[in-house]
Amino acid sequence: MAHPITGEIHRWEGAGHSMSMSNNQAELTAVIEGLTAIRRPSSVTVHADSQYVIRAFNEGRISAWKAREFRKIKNVPLWRKLIEQADRHSVTWEWIPRSTHVENKDCDRRAGQQRRLAMRSLGP
User: Fold this and answer.
1) Which residues pair with 92 in a beta bridge?
2) pLDDT in tens for each of the 124 residues of the chain?
3) Which DSSP string corresponds to 55-84?
4) Nearest alpha carbon to residue 38 among 86, 110, 92, 6
5) DSSP 8-state secondary structure symbol assigned to residue 90
6) Residue 89 has what DSSP assignment?
7) Which terminus of the chain has a lower count of CB atoms within 10 Å, N or C?
């Protein structure tokens, strides 16, 4: 995110784990947490390798889901939270190829660390 006066770019990175989440739920939660961390309405670019999230916004699926009251949509509570957070900001949704983006490789590394921590917490 760019500071409105200085133009300085601000980045947010986070990591976490849950043994009970699906991959799609984790993707949604990651974006929700990132947008929630931004306290004031801002112009934000969300970079993600999740076509599940990016296409929903870029291809107009959100409007269609709202029109039919989210019938037959999975993860509705998470989608509602994400939409609520996205509506606070001016968001550009950008899909990035998983294997070619430097920051995405770093995200995958951190996700692997979190997965290993989660597995250790289960014990032998």
Assistant:
1) 45
2) 444 455 556 665 655 556 667 888 988 998 999 999 998 999 999 988 889 999 999 999 999 999 999 999 999 999 999 999 999 999 999 998 876 767 666 666 776 777 777 777 777 6
3) HHHHTTHHHHHHHTTTTT-SSHHHHHHHHH
4) 86
5) E
6) S
7) C
